[in-house]
């Protein structure tokens, strides 16, 4: 396919018609800067083929701001050595005309004929989309899209398979695809894309599983029903046997016999326990009696002990009484010492208080004197500060006026120096009696005057001479001097001084006074940091405190100025007090000890007298004999009880009450258990009879028959559909495998074309493609295999263009029309790669027409074709014709 002419009108920036004629069969290069119309031309060509002429989605083709424009495109092309003509207008007066070698088509019929010829489709509604662009979408590359190859191949896959069907065979042909599609459709009725049961087949399988489960459940119910009938017969047989024998009655009779034996054994145990308690009382009486007899023996011993204790108490009382005179004297001495120490401590404290008051008085007096001195100095400083403040106020100098005066004076001096430098000189040497005046001023002797203005010299007896200095500069300097002098006089007047020296002297005096004033204020803050009034108030407070101290000192006795050791006096008082407390404690302890000794002596004497009289009485002897006889009788009773208790223990051991209790429990529980089993068996029989009657009324057998029929039908349906699904999936796999094998046959010529271009860019490299003819991985010499998406951006661009050229060669061989349009392709390729890609493009242009648009003309100067400058083309009044 070869475009021979392209005309556009009212398309974006091309408000006027633009025509490209006599396009070359191979390479056609169009260059221009950004916004020169390259992409507009590409969009116009794409819209002529891809967009419906009635579509309203191409408003972006209208020139900006011109909603009444009707974008139109006219394309003339050759196919199989015959001429075709496409004319299309959008939005306004819409039309589409296609002139073929044999007929003229209009409207949608013309659009469908073009789509069939080139291998693309149209969108159902709205603007055309990438998935509709087919083969042109693969070969016509928009700006910045050359590296994107996967999706364009997917969108062109159906058309590629269709136009190349004669190279594949039946399965890969349209009829073969239809067969596969039909088998896939039938398979999808039962299976998912991965060959697993879909929702419908899963429902059939689930229905079969449910039917089988229901049948199994009913079969379980029937088996359970039969088992329950057998269980009912067994329970009824056991009930008849136990109702006749009633074995629990015999067990309860044995338990009653064991209870009688246990009751008799319990009575023996009670008797034994009673006799044990009685024997315990007898044993206790024996112990008391023995203790009583032992008491008689202990009384004799206690009598001797009491006699000894009485003698010891008398000796202790006498020893204690002998210490009384010494302790009394010690107590009196300690009391006197404590009283003397107390008086000395009181005198020491009073003397110390007097000394402290005197010291405080001296300190307050010194502070008062110090404050008085400070106050005197502060008051003098305050007076000096007031005087200096007045002086400061009188010596205030306007700093701005002083600065102006200084500047004026310096300027005036400079001007005077300049005048003197330029002025005429009047030198004179007068006799002693000469009477000469210069400008009224008398002069004498020798001298010189600078003449900067008109000057008159009066000579007595001779007349006058006038001098007029020459030069415009001198006059100008004189005027400037007069102006500056006026400014100086004004500043002197403002400062109320006669000269600059006086003004500077006043300023210096003002600074001196200010510094002195600040120094006096600093000194005043040292003496009175809080002010004079606060200093006077503090001095008054000290005067008041001094008066209070004088009053306190007047009430105290006068003492000599000597050091008073109050701490020592207090310590001696404390020691005397401690000594008195110890002596008093010793005296109190003696009094207590003497009282106790007298009490013990009296008590010991009374106890000895009482025991002596008690032991020598006849009643005491008779009581002792009676107690001895009671002990003999009690020992005889204890032996009798021991014999009786042993006999009862022998009977109890033979009866074994614990074992009897276990027998009663065992026999009673056995009887209760057997009787409970009989009652539970009766209840089970009642429940089984009721349940079996209910199950029999539900028609369990009929349900089982229905379930068996339903399960059989569901299983047959499942087996049928599973076999059909298995067969369809097997057939589909066979068909897909056949198509895959035949598709691989197509990959061979495609691989041939890919390798043709690859060896120009990467010698020894190989680019693999998948079953859908999409490029997958690039294998370069001495490098790892790499996916297309992992390559650099520039390499992706280069591979994208090479793949498109290979597809174009494949289509060319199949006799299909090809046209390659590249808008700003290969912008990310380096110089070396770009040179290789130029060779590839030049080679491809020997088989295909290539329209190349670029904003980098310098990159394509060695492409072998003349470039068309669109910027210059737009400036021409008529269409450009390519010769």
UniProtKB/TrEMBL annotation:
Location of the Endonuclease GajA/Old nuclease/RecF-like AAA domain: 1-339
Which intervals of the chain are annotated as region Disordered? 253-282, 297-321, 334-359
Q: Which UniProt keywords apply?
A: Coiled coil
One Pfam annotation, family name?
AAA_15
Q: Where is the composition biased (Low complexity)?
A: 261-276, 305-317
The residue stretches assigned to a coiled coil in this entry are: 208-242, 474-651, 697-724
Q: What is this protein called?
A: Putative GTP-binding protein
Xref: InterPro entries: AAA_GajA/Old/RecF-like, P-loop_NTPase
The answer to keyword Coiled coil applying to this record is yes
Please indicate which superkingdom the organism of origin belongs to. Answer: Bacteria
What does the record give as the organism's lineage? Bacteria, Pseudomonadati, Pseudomonadota, Gammaproteobacteria, Oceanospirillales
Q: Which organism is it from?
A: Reinekea blandensis MED297
List where Basic and acidic residues composition bias occurs. Answer: 334-343
């Amino acid at each position: 396919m070869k475009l021979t002419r392209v005309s556009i009108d009212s398309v974006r920036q091309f408000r006027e018609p633009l025509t490209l004629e006599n396009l070359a069969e191979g390479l056609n290069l169009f260059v221009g800067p950004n916004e020169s119309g390259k992409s507009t031309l590409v969009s116009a060509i794409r819209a002529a083929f891809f967009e419906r002429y009635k579509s309203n989605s191409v408003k972006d083709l209208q020139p900006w701001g011109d909603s009444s424009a009707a974008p139109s495109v006219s394309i003339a092309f050759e196919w199989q050595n015959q001429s075709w003509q496409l004319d299309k207008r959008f939005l306004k007066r819409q039309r589409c005309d296609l002139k073929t070698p044999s007929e003229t088509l209009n409207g949608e019929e013309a659009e469908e004929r073009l789509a069939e010829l080139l291998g693309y489709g149209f969108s159902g509604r709205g603007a055309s989309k990438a998935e509709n662009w087919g083969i042109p979408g693969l070969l016509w590359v928009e700006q910045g899209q050359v590296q994107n190859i996967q999706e364009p191949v997917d969108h062109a896959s159906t058309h590629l398979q269709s136009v190349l069907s004669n190279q594949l065979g039946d399965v890969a042909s349209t009829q073969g695809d239809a067969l596969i599609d039909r088998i896939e459709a039938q398979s999808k009725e039962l299976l998912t894309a991965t060959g697993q049961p879909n929702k419908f087949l899963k429902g059939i399988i689930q229905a079969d599983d449910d039917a089988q489960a229901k049948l199994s459940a009913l079969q379980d119910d029937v088996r359970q029903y039969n088992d329950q009938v057998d269980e009912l017969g067994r329970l009824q047989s056991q009930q008849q046997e136990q109702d006749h024998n009633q074995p629990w009655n015999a067990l309860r009779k044995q338990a009653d016999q064991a209870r009688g034996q246990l009751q008799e054994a319990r009575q023996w145990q009670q008797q034994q326990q009673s006799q044990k308690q009685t024997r315990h009382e007898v044993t206790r009486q024996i112990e008391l009696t023995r203790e009583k007899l032992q008491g008689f023996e202990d009384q004799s011993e206690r009598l001797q002990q009491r006699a000894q204790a009485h003698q010891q108490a008398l000796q202790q009382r006498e020893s204690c009484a002998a210490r009384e005179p010494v302790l009394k004297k010690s107590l009196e001495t300690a009391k006197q010492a404590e009283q003397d120490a107390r008086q000395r401590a009181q005198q020491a404290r009073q003397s110390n208080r007097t000394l402290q008051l005197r010291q405080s008085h001296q300190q307050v007096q010194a502070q008062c004197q110090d404050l008085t001195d400070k106050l005197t100095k502060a008051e003098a400083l305050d007076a000096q500060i007031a005087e200096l403040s007045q002086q400061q106020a009188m010596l205030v100098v306007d700093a701005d006026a002083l600065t102006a005066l200084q500047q004026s004076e310096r300027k005036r001096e400079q001007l005077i120096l300049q005048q003197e430098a330029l002025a005429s000189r009047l030198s004179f040497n007068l006799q002693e009696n000469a009477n000469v005046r210069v400008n009224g001023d008398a002069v004498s002797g020798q001298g010189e005057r600078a003449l900067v203005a008109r000057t008159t010299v009066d000579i007595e007896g001779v007349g006058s001479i006038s001098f007029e200095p020459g030069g415009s500069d001198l006059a100008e300097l004189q005027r400037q001097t007069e102006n500056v002098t006026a400014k100086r006089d004004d500043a002197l007047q403002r400062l109320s001084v006669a000269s600059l020296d006086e003004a500077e002297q006043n300023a210096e005096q003002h600074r001196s006074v200010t510094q002195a004033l600040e120094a006096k204020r600093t000194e005043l803050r040292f003496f009175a940091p809080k002010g004079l009034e606060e200093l006077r108030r503090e001095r008054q407070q000290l005067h008041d405190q001094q008066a209070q101290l004088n009053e306190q000192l007047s009430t105290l006795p006068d003492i000599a100025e000597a050091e008073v050791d109050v701490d020592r006096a207090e310590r001696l008082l404390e020691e005397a007090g401690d000594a008195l407390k110890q002596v008093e404690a010793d005296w109190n302890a003696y009094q207590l000890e003497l009282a106790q000794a007298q009490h013990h002596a009296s008590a010991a004497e009374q106890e000895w007298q009482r025991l002596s009289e008690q032991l020598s009485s006849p009643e005491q002897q008779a009581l002792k004999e009676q107690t001895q006889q009671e002990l003999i009788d009690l020992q005889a009773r204890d032996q009798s009880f021991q014999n009786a208790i042993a006999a009862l223990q022998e009977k109890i051991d033979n009866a074994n009450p614990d074992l009897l209790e276990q027998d009663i429990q065992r026999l009673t529980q056995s009887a209760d258990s057997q009787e409970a089993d009989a009652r539970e068996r009766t209840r089970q029989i009642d429940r089984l009879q009721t349940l079996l009657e209910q199950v029999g009324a539900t028609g369990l057998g009929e349900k089982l028959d229905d379930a068996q029929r339903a399960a059989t039908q569901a299983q047959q349906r499942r087996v049928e559909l599973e076999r059909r699904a298995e067969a369809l999936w097997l057939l589909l796999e066979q068909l897909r495998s056949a198509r895959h094998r035949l598709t691989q046959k197509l990959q061979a010529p495609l691989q041939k074309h890919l390798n043709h271009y690859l060896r120009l860019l990467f010698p020894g490299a190989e680019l693999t493609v998948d079953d859908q003819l999409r490029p997958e991985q690039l294998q370069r010499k001495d490098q790892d295999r790499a996916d297309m998406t992992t390559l650099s951006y520039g390499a992706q661009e280069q591979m994208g263009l090479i793949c498109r050229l290979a597809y174009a060669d494949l289509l060319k061989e199949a006799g299909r029309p090809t046209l390659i349009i590249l808008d700003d392709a290969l912008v990310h390729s380096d110089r070396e790669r770009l040179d290789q890609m130029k060779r590839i493009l030049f080679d491809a242009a020997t088989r295909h027409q290539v329209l190349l648009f670029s904003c980098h003309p310098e990159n394509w100067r060695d492409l072998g074709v003349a470039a068309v400058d669109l910027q210059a083309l737009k400036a021409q009044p008529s269409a450009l014709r390519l010769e």
